[in-house]
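Translate sequence into structure tokens.
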Amino acid sequence: MYAVIETGGKQFRVEEGTRLRVAALDAEVGSEVVMDKVLLLGGEALAVGKPYVENARVAAEVLEHGRGEKILVFKKRRRHDSRRSKGHRQMYSAVRITSISS
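Result follows.
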């Protein structure tokens, strides 16, 4: 069985045991989070939500919190001797999917 979930403004296709990085969650390491924004349940029977599947839940265990790779934002205005450089590192939470229920 697999599911398509929405978290942090992004969509992920997950199965039990899947590890993924999602936008930072407000949960402690080792705790369990339940995601109820399930867009699709697949397997023997396909269930598509409008926009979410009713009574569907995906449970995940929080493995760690961290910061992603640094990206550089560089702006230059030609002929004005104007340059600006800025860096950004996105916060994330690594989770492992423990169960999918409908």
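Note: The longest strand covers residues 57-67.
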